[in-house]
Amino acid sequence: MIRPHTLRRYRFDDDVSVSEIGEAILLATPRGELSLSVRQRERRTMFHHLSDGGADVASLLSIVGGAATDTVWVYRTLEKFVRAGLVVESIGIPSAAVIRRMVFDDTGGRAVDRVRVDPTAYLRADPDGMIFECARSTSLVRVTDWRLPAVIATLAQASGVPWRELTWPEGVDDALAEAVVIALLETGHLRPDEDSSPELREWSFHDSVFHTRSRLGYHDGPYGGTYANASMRAPLPAVTSASDAPSIPLARPDLADLSRTDPPLVTVQESRQSWRRSGPRAVTADELGEFLYRSARVRAQRSTDREDISLRPYPGGGADYELEIYPLVNRVDGLDRGLYHYNPADHALVPLSPWSDGLEALADEISRTAVTDSYPDVMFFVTARMGRLTYKYEAIPYALALKDLGVLYSTWYMTATAMGLAPCALGGGDSALFAQVSGVSMWAEPRIGEFILNTPDPTERRTAPAEEREVPE
């Protein structure tokens, strides 16, 4: 009878090769060559077993010897190579799954009667097949045949039933099912049915995955500024124009004069608030020009050995400045109604579309989100040219775009308050609708933010907890 533990075999990953020179073991890995001094022949033999299809832990222990020091050496060696990503675990003969761990755990099984699939676990495709992944797990499970999803589906549909009493699909024997269950309990893809995580229940599935996969700690995949796509394409330009249409130059304020007349920062911070209703007069084209000049223009550009970068009034990750600004003008003295693109290098608006039914739908959406019964004077749609970030970064591009968006929001709030205008950031919006109406790609340049700008409505003025706040004139 096949025993479950014999179906769990450790081996070197496919991109690791082993050779032996005297008493040294040479490991060729993607990160370079590693030389290990291994005097005992039995221990050198274990490395070859790990290379030639692998072996279960009991077999490895028998190869090395039965002494306590040998046992400690085997476990420490496995743990070191598992943590380094050089040794993986295969489940089943033939393999139904290959597990890449960040933490070595070989408990030999737990006394767990009832299990459930972790709520943050998911099955996804990748270029080499299918992956069973879990936001709360530090292990990645590669699916190598249909039996693993069959076991997972059976467990998911039988929550609360002791797993040893389940009837597995034809072709999945009890030994393989037990090996899968115990391994996935160790990796965290399965949890004891009584496992209680009240704080996790308040996280959506998507938020939990986004958090753990855009931070370090729960995965060992590529992360940060790796320039992984540099070999496949050129970097996107630092500044782009959404249209070849003639642009409309905007007003450029005198910054030296503003430095003398602007209210102090503490006044701006204490006066800041969100205004939703439009004021009695329209925002002017000069005010819109000053607002964008002070907050979003390109101050300077330069080239690095990798790409062109720019300097703007708000900080941006890696100076890549992926955010693009599309003002939807409803009521601006000096500008026609319609959708524009802001060119930060020329400090100009490029007309994209006159007012239409599609723009009306966008304005309706903004009004509903802002909870106001009229269209704001200016509605800003902020997109992210993801290619600016994905050229350089891995794992963090979307998270970085959202952080940059938050910085832009803060800059807009401070700028508008200092100018005596009425700003308000909105919490979400219909990215698909914007892509449909504007023609801007949903994935190359997704809409990630929305912001409205008016003149203040005096009836909307609010008070701070201790004192009435003055709006800078």
UniProtKB/TrEMBL annotation:
Which residue numbers delimit the Nitroreductase domain?
A: 271-441
Instruction: Tell me which residues make up the Cyanobactin oxidase ThcOx second domain.
Output: 121-220
InterPro entries attached to this UniProt entry = Bacteriocin_Proc_Enz, Nitroreductase, Nitroreductase-like, SagB-type_dehydrogenase, ThcOx_dom2
- Spell out the Gene3D superfamilies in the cross-references: NADH Oxidase
UniProt xrefs under PANTHER family: NITROREDUCTASE MJ1384-RELATED
The protein depicted here goes by the name SagB family peptide dehydrogenase
